[in-house]
Design a protein that fits this description.
297 residues; mainly alpha; 2 domains; globular
Amino acid sequence: MYAEFLELYPGVLFIAVGLMGLLVGSFLNVVAYRLPIMMERAWRRQCAELAAEQLKEPPHAEEGQAFDLWRPRSGCPSCGASVAAYDNVPLVSYLSLRGRCRHCGATISARYPLVEAGAALLGLAVVSVFGPSWQTLILLPVTWTLLALSLIDIDRQYLPDSLTLPLLWAGLLVAALSGAGEPLFTDLNSAVIGAAAGYLSLWSVYQLFKLATGKEGMGYGDFKLLAALGAWLGWQLLPLVILLSAAVGALLGGALLALGGKSRQTPIPFGPYLAAAGWITLLWGGELTRWYVEAFF
């Protein structure tokens, strides 16, 4: 019934997903900022317990104060004033406040509305490809998880297990549950092999690079992210993901070096390239593969 209604009125689906994307994008800003802090607090707490020392809390998370994805309320990075609900409407509040805090007038980073708009646009892209289907319903959270991972990796140069591992297990579970009929994305055998191949391929590159140079070329989070993408896509599309991510990484890395924004010693997170390549492959992998085969073979 609902699918038929959305097929008759596709604009409703686009509007709903667009609005949901704005709301999710606002939440992803919180996740990208708070989740690494929550993880670092847990690490410090464990180290303090092992060393029998008193944990010193950071200034933004005083001792005894709850600090998670929901508490405390969002506040201005400059003055710390809590953001009222009417100042926390995605895009609208930023534009109405002209990108400044209502209380102290400090400039608010343009990243916040860009992430909100980006989450909405990515969601609309999923809808435009798959329409009202199970694929759309499943790929929307996958898309937004990949966006959150990219933001965290850009900021902190690591990919949290609390996001990569659920993404991996969800891909395997979807492949297993759709095994009786036509696979939504890939079959279970391909998903399991894809997860193993995704992890081991980058792990092997890491070990060879470390053996040759004595340095670590990437982190274990990259292995887990590619394993998760392999679970969703199957092993057959992993070469396309690696090719796309390497191409984008080489182009952007070379551009940053040429413009003087980075040096050769500056670590560049690989997670965003993997996430972007995996997302593109999820949506258009079949078409890209067919185009490649027809063009070069």
